[in-house]
Automatic annotation (TrEMBL):
Residues annotated as signal peptide: none
Organism per entry: Streptomyces tagetis
Name of the protein in its database record: YbaK/EbsC family protein
The organism's place on the tree of life at top rank: Bacteria
Domain (YbaK/aminoacyl-tRNA synthetase-associated) ranges: 67-172
Length: 185
């Protein structure tokens, strides 16, 4: 199979390589129920040495920068209670944590979750967190620019490997809310 974008040595429909994915990601693919079939989610093997964005796009294709998205975990606090959420924005933007995210979650304060919290709560590796397989009760805030792409490059749950996912499928994930202004330049 050829990857729908980028220059990868191998591309496999995600349902055919569940053993390569972390448990929460594999479970989400296994129980996929979106309008886009699960076999349209493509796993591409990548070298973790090339995981940093600049090196990654140099090796796997410059066009990937425009189709890459970052999934970050945030912690929103109000009255001593903390809520975890994930935000998905294009790699060329940053998450408006203290504006759009804080207001949407009704928090007094919002910040990026610590690495230990992000990895411990998701069951994924830092640098590979993906919106597929997040805890079902978490809000998943998605920038509309991500949804508008034919395919989006996101983490696979591990630093090795990435997923290529149709943008519209990301808007159908559990807890997903498409939120204008989430990603800012």
């Amino acid at each position: 199979m050829d990857a729908p974008l980028g220059d990868f040595d191998s591309a496999t429909p995600a349902p055919d390589c569940l053993d390569t994915l972390t448990t929460p990601v594999a479970d989400a693919v296994r129980h996929w129920s979106g309008a886009v079939p699960a076999d349209r989610i493509v796993y591409v093997d990548t070298d973790p040495e090339w995981a940093d964005t600049a090196v990654f796009v140099e090796h796997y294709g410059a066009g990937l920068l425009r189709s890459s998205a970052n999934c970050v975990v945030v912690s929103a606090k109000r009255g001593g209670a903390a809520t975890l959420a994930a935000c998905l924005v294009l790699s060329t933007t940053r998450v408006d944590v203290n504006g759009v995210v804080r207001r949407h979650l009704g928090a007094r304060k919002a910040s990026f979750a610590s690495m230990d919290t992000a990895t411990g709560e998701t069951g994924m590796e830092y640098g590979g967190i993906t919106p597929i397989g997040l805890p079902r009760d978490w809000p998943l805030l998605v920038d509309p620019a991500v949804v508008d792409l034919p395919y989006v490059l996101v983490g696979s749950g591990r630093r090795r490997g990435k997923l290529l996912v149709p943008g519209k499928a990301l808007a159908e994930l559990p807890g997903a809310v498409v939120l204008e202004g989430l990603g800012v330049a």
